[in-house]
Amino acid sequence: xxxxxxKHIQTLRPYQPGKPIDELERELGITGSIKLASNxxxxxxSPKAVEAMSALVAESNIYPxxxxxxxxxxxxxxxxxxxxxxxxxxxxNELLTLLVRAFCLPEHNAVVSEFAFVAYRVVLTAxxxxxxxxxxxxxxxxxxxxxxxxxxxxxxxxxxxNPNNPTGTYANYDELKSFIKSVPAHVIVVLDExxxxxxxxxxxxxxxxxxxxxxxxxVCRTFSKCYGLAxxxxxxxxGPAEMMDFVNRIREPFNCxxxxxxxxxxxxxxxxFVHASVECNETGRNALEAGLMAMSDMGVxxxxxxxxxxxxEMPCDAGPVYDAMLRQGVIVRPMAPYGLPKHLRITIGxxxxxxxxxxxxxxxxxxxxx
Length: 370
Ligand SMILES: *Cc1c(COP(=O)(O)O)cnc(C)c1O
Hints:
- By secondary structure, the chain is of the alpha/beta class.
- The protein has 13 helices and 13 strands.
- Pyridoxal-5'-phosphate binds at residues 39, 91-93, 117, 161, 165, 192, 194, 222, 224-225, 230, 235.
């Protein structure tokens, strides 16, 4: 079978999602589990989105608007872009795939950071595009200057998540601005802002502020996190109209479904829900950090975060800790696939979920390090 697919596909390892609650409960015969593994919104979906989607369920026989006109119109309006500069994806993950497919050829290469969102590697590898991974520096910060320096004449695309998953770290205003200015002009900079709503640092900036500084800049965002719509798969990209036109040509005609479009449109203006989500996240993060701090004598450490999760270092291999937490019905995310075998990524849940998670982690550590 080795001649069936190209080498880069033979060796591709599929993206490992967080363990679904159903699967865990089936395997262990337990109930009442919680999942803090996929950075989902613990408050649920935006109620306005739910209402808008519910009203449309019975119209599921109708194809969605392939151009996603109303959603693109609202996004353009809200973020100071023109409609031809906006493309909608079946989640922002699809947009990453489309960008690589549209613009990268096998003779090109890409630049990513070490410990960046793993989808960049999956998407690039699947397309047979080689990439350079630039090591992080002090405290898991992405080395933006190192990424600039890693670009050569064949570099076609650079992916940067800000804030980043799984580290939770961010590049500040000055760092980002200088990065966007100094990446060589022939390179497409893709700025992934999946967690932007959660970023509260006073010196955090969206790359949309710097669009005038660079032609080849594409900003990707998602409705999966703060808007609570991960299940209906909607993301958007904002970039130069000429580039977005090419992305638009290669996407599937109805890539964003009927419910997703309606839900996203309603969620965009559900500011109450966004505010409540951010507030819940701040409260939850404080509680989680307090819980982890109380385990510092056991050797637990974490990375300061601008997102809805924490990257937490165990005093031992994190695999057995993860398993011991699963047995208590708490699903977090082991980071070995990211090259961090001693780390877990914990999504910030509701106060009750955080409390349960902290208890489970403590019990797991006691069990594992006994
Ligand atoms: C969750 C996440 C996304 C969003 O993916 P969707 O396909 O929109 O659900 C994108 N980038 C990063 C860094 C993420 O963590």
